[in-house]
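Worked example 3 (structure in, sequence out).
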């Protein structure tokens, strides 16, 4: 842990890099799996919801941290990811096995 508060900014660098890497990978997957006719709509929705998810994620983490302590934040995130994965598998919202390739 850094001795000064200014050193805490350096701890954000891996978080920022991983966030932007995940967004880039998500955009690439969207262009791979979505048909050409729906590509603009899907990417537009994706780009429009990214700021909203960033705001709501910070608010939710702050609320969980305030009520339950630091250890609950990563555990809650893991629980949300597990619940989302269960919903995806249960409702069969998985991407097709053979995505449409460009002709």
């Amino acid at each position: 842990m850094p001795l000064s508060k200014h050193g805490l900014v350096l701890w954000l660098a891996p978080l920022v890099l991983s966030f932007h890497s995940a967004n880039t990978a998500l955009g690439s997957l969207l262009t791979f799996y979505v048909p050409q006719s729906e590509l603009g709509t899907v990417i537009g929705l994706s780009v429009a919801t990214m700021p909203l998810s960033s705001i709501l994620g910070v608010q939710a983490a702050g609320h969980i941290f305030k009520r339950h302590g630091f250890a609950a934040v990563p555990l809650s995130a893991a629980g949300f990811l597990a619940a989302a994965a269960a919903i995806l598998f249960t409702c069969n919202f998985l991407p097709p096995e053979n995505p449409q390739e460009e002709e």
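Notes: Residues 7-90 form one domain. Helices lie at 12-33, 39-68, 72-90.
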